[in-house]
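Action item from last week, closing it out:
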Amino acid sequence: MIKRTLTAALVMAFAATGAFAQDKVRLQLKWVTQAQFAGYYVAEAKGFYAEENLDVDILPGGPDIAPEQVIAGGGADVITTWMPAGLAARERGVPLVNIAQPFKNGGLSFVCRKDLGVTSVAEFPGKTLGVWFFGNEYPFYAWMAKLGLATDGSAAGVTVLKQAFDVEALLKGEAQCISVMTYNEYGQVLDAGYKPDDLAFFSYRDQGVVVLEDGLYVMEDRLADPAFKDQMVRFVRASMKGWKYAEANPAEAAQIVVDADQTGLQTLEHQTYMMGEVAKLTAGSSGALDPADFEQTVASLLSAVSAENPAITKAPEGMAYTLEITDAALK
């Protein structure tokens, strides 16, 4: 242990003085700086990347940033994204490969106001449902297909509202139900004064629509480069160390995220709530993708292939994922 500590200290000391160059890695996040990505910010702040001789540039996302497009254009070495979006990009000619899966479970859910007439899915017909797009809509359409509900606004179906990335549509009554993440918007609804008993809550997983969120993806051709593969092994190892540290130290992780937020918009109170919920989703994952989860995601998407839901139209071909990186990183 002493030897490893000294080694880490020496690596960090050399890195700080520029005695030898670190390998640079650009990580494009799916969304803005928040505890959804705490593991990466913790890995940076605690020196886990430096221990692996990596200089990681964490690039926040946003509503106008599509990680799949960023990496395809050469603006990132590795991205976080949801598997439906990753597979959709792959089928459309951007050959992304999942190299690690820090999130074992997903936080995407649906919440409805009971006072607006929705207490169960049987009451969905004729209602307006808020849905996020830009690749986040694929699970919703799979769910509606499973329920046998049209999404054309007909009386027997549902009306789809393109939801902003907030909860205003529900609060204003513009939609009876909206999309939420358990670790973010659901908390915002509660903060607005609603109690859990006022709401009908639907987990996609509980509804039988399982899709993986927040995996790590790289371009397939770069995995042919042994030097890049070695970088990714070290990056995944340090990142998972960051995630497990964040799970065990949620208050410290929340503070690290707030400190990393350059917009100044994130509050410690909300990031603490978020970190507690995110930890429930990363718990149980070593970072290695479970092929059974991959198959479930593919099955969910293929259950609802349509013009409205063009995530994928056939089973993924080629190397949609590899366990080679995590096998080396986590041994």
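Closing note: DSSP finds 13 helices and ten strands in the chain.
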